[in-house]
C-alpha cells in the first residue's frame, strides 16, 4: 500500500493506493487513487506500507478529477 502524505511520513494522509500486481518488475500498469485535503504548494511524501518489494514506480502523474489524460 502506498500512502500520500503532506509534509512528512506522519503528516496528514491525503490519498492511499493499494498497488495491484503486474506480471513482473518490468511490466507497468496505470493505477489511480483519489487525493483530497491538499491545496496550494505542498511537500508530498510517499510512504510504502507492507512487505518488501511493494512495487516498481515508473512515474507519478497528477490530473484534475475526471481527467483521463496524463
Concise synopsis of the structure shown:
The chain has 70 residues and is mainly beta. The chain has no helices and three strands.
Give the quaternary arrangement of the chains: single chain
| Helicity range | under 10%
The percentage of residues in β strands lies in: 15-25%
Please provide the count of β strands.
3
Q: Label the structural class.
A: mainly beta
Q: Which runs of at least 5 residues are low in confidence (pLDDT < 50)?
A: none
Which H/E pattern describes the elements? EEE
* Rg for CA atoms: 13 Å
Number of helices: 0
Shape: globular
Mean pLDDT: 86
Major β-sheet strand ordering: 2-1-3
- Tell me the distance between the termini: 22 Å
Main sheet properties: 3 strands, antiparallel
